[in-house]
Specification:
6 helices, mainly alpha, globular, single chain, 0% strand
Length: 116
């Protein structure tokens, strides 16, 4: 499962790079849309108790994106972990409520509350 998720995160990174998506909102749309289009993946991960593994992979993904697209931020690891945790918990909440909140509303909320 870990290898599958690592491959998915690499695909996110490749998609963002290929399409030159530089804004956080565009990057979040790519990320969250994957889970929205593949609802069984996140539900299976949550049911299998793989929350920690997914959160750790997401945090590494976020750290990589921030270094590439926001190199002047110089965020500490704990600041990145904090931001990642918030995004992750919103994703878990979104999955559990069957994606009823619109993607645009979720991305808008994250953009307003993330500390970049």
């Amino acid at each position: 499962m870990k290898k599958f998720l690592a491959n998915q995160y690499q695909k996110f990174t490749d998609d963002i790079t290929e399409h030159k998506l530089k804004s956080l909102s565009e990057q979040l749309v790519v990320y969250l849309t994957f889970f929205q289009k593949n609802p069984e993946i996140m539900k299976t991960l949550l049911e299998a108790g793989f929350e920690d593994g997914l959160l750790n992979l997401q945090t590494r993904y976020l750290k990589k994106l921030l270094k590439v697209y926001y190199p002047d931020l110089h965020l500490t690891d704990y600041a990145i972990a904090y931001q990642s945790g918030g995004i992750y918990m919103l994703l878990v909440w979104w999955v559990k409520q069957d994606y009823r909140t619109s993607l645009a509303e979720l991305v808008d909320y994250i953009e307003k509350h993330i500390m970049l």
